[in-house]
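Fold this sequence, please.
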Amino acid sequence: MNKKLIFFILIIIIVALAFPAYENQRVEQIIAQKKAVLHAEGIDLSIEPKEGYFVSIRKFNLTLQKGEVIALMLKENLVRFYPLYKDSIEAYFKKNQTTIAQSLEGMRFSGFITVDNLMLNKPKLRIVLKELPTILMQDIKNDPSASSIVLPWLDHGLIAFKVVFNQDGSLEHIAMRNFDEKFTSGIKKEANHIQLLGNQLMVLDKNSGEFQMQKASIESKNRAQKQTVLMQLKDLKYQFQYDDMLHESSNLNIGDFVINLNDTQKSTKFSINNFTVNSHSDSDKEKTNFMAEYKIGAMNFLGYQQLLKLHQLNLKVTFSGLNTPAVKSFIRTYGHKITQQPPNQMFLQNDVMAIINQGFNLKVDGGINETQYAIFALKAFDFSINLKVAPNTLNSNSQPEEFEQFISISSDIMITQNDIDQLSVINPKLVEELKKYAKKDGDHLLFHIVLDKSKISINDKEL
């Protein structure tokens, strides 16, 4: 064999054997740094010596020791993410400092850190909740019913997570272990079943992420009274991008949400399918825009002799041209005043008027298809509303006619002939009057409604 090739192979072998030692030293340095940071934040991390050379495993215990220090850290992070709520966050933590600290202190986790020192796969952490906060553990231990349920969960490590880190030690994603437990509770020994399946949080970068849940279900049965309660959520997905409160976007999708209540006397069922919420906000020094869009694939409610069925709903709301300083003032005031007990019902009046004074645009688009409620069965209803508020000097004491001078509204409505005939059951005179102004388009009636400086017109016919 060629001597150069032999020498090259030897070098590869030496590097492969030596590299894990270097990688292990690097990991130890990262752990030491993380341990120091956690200690400063009131969290104790103890790690046993590693086992393994090419793949090292480290056992650890993590305890939230100093509740007040951890609460302070949480407060600082909340202020950093929501600076416009700074006053309210600080006021809330000051008022509830002891409660927050006690709700954290004493919580203990254990687990393993696995690091591949040769192949450089991403470090993995398996973490198990071993003890709840001290004050809560005391209450559970003093309650035989709660002890019989919760303590076995903790002893058997049923509440557990898998955490994957990037090579620099930053978080990549967290996945909760599937939780599927049946137990009895209460004097009447209700049979309960809790499922939390497929939970995972992906951290895409420091400002964005994605949370997924395949199924969350709570079912309770009281056989003696023949009662059943079921709440179930399937296929939840939430994506978000957050820079600050005026620069964010998110998307929430829920495949199915169901609530069933059954007993010998009545049955109540509520369900939503394919529920989606999209939101977006952007801002500069002068103007701020908000958008929210809601969609429901189907919704059904049956109970107490009432029936509601909805095949499809779409709703999009857009605020544009809002004055940025006025919006920031509104958010600060809202956050600060809402913590007051009891809250002042007029606390936002000045800030709302400041937004109105600067003017803005509001656009609402929506549609409902195949809706049934009681005796009504509407096939299709679509609408679009545009509202414009011009800059003004109005105040809370201004009269309605003064507001009308600065507000213009235009709306387009499309409804089927059959649907508007059904509405005549509620107010036949109004429906007959509206038909006089309608434009026909096949089986549909069209209405273009304009309100401008207190004057109203429908399809260019002034009322």
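The two ends are 101 Å apart (CA to CA). The chain has a mean pLDDT of 81.
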